[in-house]
């Protein structure tokens, strides 16, 4: 398929490509030849207005029709074949196997929502009338859910498929009946356009209004501001940095009509390492933590960034095993040169933060590659150093050395909200683990036992969210079947004639 470099606005490819921005070959660090248009104010407005017009039809479609649309998107993504894998690996530096797996997950998410729509998973609640009830008759009340309207979605840098153009936010919004205006990530615009072509094809096959989906390219920060402040946009899904997320949140709060902002803004994913686990399996655990850290060169939102451990007689062997594993890691490709620069600058700041370098991975040969690092600090240093309590987007982790189990519990009080937290323990640790779990559960969206945090299962019981800044609404998830509820609102119908009820409540 041909990459145009243009924006998809209500079924038409528009925009001035000449003089636009380019993506980078993540493997070589060189700019790619294809230029991409920055979406204009007029194009953004047209995309949102067209989406709002499409909502009048799309928002009332039967669940079976929405399900067919989602499945058709998945089929068209698969039909893109190797070209999608090739351009995604070029733009991100991620290996082909990772992209293939992410494509499968993306299609799986679409099919998950389709299956749940077909099975009636999202049906409402019916309380029939009771005219004989004393002292007052009970009316007929039926609780259903209706879509919010136009949803603005921002693609993630680190998941070019599963959290981007047709990723979880888009899939759940479309499943809810909401048209989507997607802001593509400038790190992988070609990947975004190919997936948008697949969505457009699905729109045509299913004979839906063209405004159901639009794709906006660009590096201009004004694009994001216009999306989140447009009066016809009724919700926003965002995955990105805490700094940008808070800017968008502030702009949304200043709207005459505030709207839901579902932002995923970062996570340290603390690893609570219990004493008897270290004594029994310390070296193996250290190697496993390093392997988890290195997935995606540390650019996973669930990367294990901070490890709290008691500095007892077994600690030295654990640290040595972790250091050895880090030293063996080759320097790796970051998603973009800018991200590599940011990672390197953060690591340099950590070197002057009071933390100690435990180990460094192999040196980078080129500027856009980054070396792995492992630091350590005592609890007092961690408590008093803001920088060490912030997410590092890359392959660096911090060991926090605690004097005893009481300090491990104290450590939890110093961390912000997290997507995940893991406890590594054996049966002999259970008494101490119980107290750790009781504290940690209030800081995380997913509590894990003896497994690594990297990897998110797409299923009904998954929660991918957590207290701020892990997400801006701790009651919601961006992964799994409950993600659809972010883009719906409850509506109660009282004493309505059946002819005026939605089909699911009849």
From TrEMBL:
One of its GO terms (molecular function) is oxidoreductase activity, acting on the aldehyde or oxo group of donors, NAD or NADP as acceptor. Keywords: Oxidoreductase. Gene3D superfamilies: Aldehyde Dehydrogenase, Chain A, domain 1 (3.40.605.10), Aldehyde Dehydrogenase, Chain A, domain 2 (3.40.309.10). CDD domains: ALDH_KGSADH. It comes from the Bacteria. Residues 32-466 form the Aldehyde dehydrogenase domain. PANTHER family: ALDEHYDE DEHYDROGENASE-RELATED (PTHR43353:SF3), SUCCINATE-SEMIALDEHYDE DEHYDROGENASE, MITOCHONDRIAL (PTHR43353). This is Aldehyde dehydrogenase (NADP(+)). It comes from Litorilituus lipolyticus.
């Amino acid at each position: 398929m041909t990459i145009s470099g243009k924006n998809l606005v209500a079924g038409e490819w528009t925009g001035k490509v000449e003089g636009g921005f380019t993506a980078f070959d993540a493997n070589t660090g060189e700019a790619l030849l294809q230029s991409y248009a920055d979406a204009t104010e007029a194009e953004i407005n047209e995309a949102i207005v067209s989406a709002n017009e499409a909502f009048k039809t799309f928002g009332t479609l039967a669940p079976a029709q929405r399900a067919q649309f989602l499945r058709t998107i998945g089929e068209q993504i698969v039909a893109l074949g190797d070209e999608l894998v090739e351009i995604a690996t070029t733009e991100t530096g991620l290996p082909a196997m990772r992209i293939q797996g992410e494509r499968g997950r993306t299609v799986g998410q679409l099919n998950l929502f389709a299956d749940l729509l077909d099975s009636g998973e999202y049906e409402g609640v019916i309380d029939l009338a009771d005219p004989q009830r004393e002292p007052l008759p009970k009316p007929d009340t039926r609780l259903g859910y209706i879509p919010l309207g136009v949803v603005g979605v921002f693609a993630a840098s680190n998941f070019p498929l599963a959290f981007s153009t047709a990723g979880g936010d888009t899939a759940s919004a479309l499943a809810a009946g909401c048209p989507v205006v997607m802001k593509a990530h400038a790190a992988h615009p070609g990947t975004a356009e190919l997936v948008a072509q697949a969505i457009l094809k699905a729109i045509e096959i299913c004979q839906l209004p063209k405004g159901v989906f639009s794709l906006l390219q660009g590096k201009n920060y004004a694009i994001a501001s216009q999306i989140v402040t447009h009066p016809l946009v009724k919700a926003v899904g965002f995955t990105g940095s805490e700094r940008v997320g808070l800017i968008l949140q502030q702009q949304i709060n200043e709207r005459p009509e505030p709207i839901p902002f579902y932002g995923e803004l970062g996570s340290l994913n603390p690893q609570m390492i219990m004493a008897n686990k270290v004594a029994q399996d310390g070296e193996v655990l250290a190697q496993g933590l390093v392997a988890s850290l290195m997935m995606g060169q540390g650019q996973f939102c669930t990367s294990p960034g901070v490890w709290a451990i008691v500095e007892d007689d077994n600690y030295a062997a654990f640290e040595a095993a972790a250091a050895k594993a880090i030293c063996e890691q080759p320097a790796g490709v970051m998603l973009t040169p800018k991200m590599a620069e940011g990672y390197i600058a953060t690591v340099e700041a950590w070197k002057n933060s009071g933390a100690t370098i435990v180990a460094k991975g192999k040196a980078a040969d080129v500027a856009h590659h980054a070396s792995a690092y492992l630091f350590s600090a005592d609890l007092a240093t961690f408590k008093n150093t803001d920088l060490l309590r912030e997410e590092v987007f890359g392959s660096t982790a911090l060991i926090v050395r605690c004097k005893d189990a009481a300090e491990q519990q104290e450590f939890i009080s110093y961390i912000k909200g997290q997507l995940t937290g893991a406890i590594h323990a054996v049966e002999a640790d259970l008494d101490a683990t119980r107290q750790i779990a009781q504290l940690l559960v209030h800081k995380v969206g997913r509590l894990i036992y003896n497994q690594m945090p990297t990897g998110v299962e797409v299923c009904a019981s998954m929660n991918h969210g957590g207290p701020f800044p892990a997400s801006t609404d701790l009651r919601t998830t961006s992964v799994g079947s409950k993600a659809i509820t972010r883009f719906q609102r409850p509506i109660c119908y009282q004493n309505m004639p059946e002819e005026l009820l939605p089909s699911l409540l009849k």
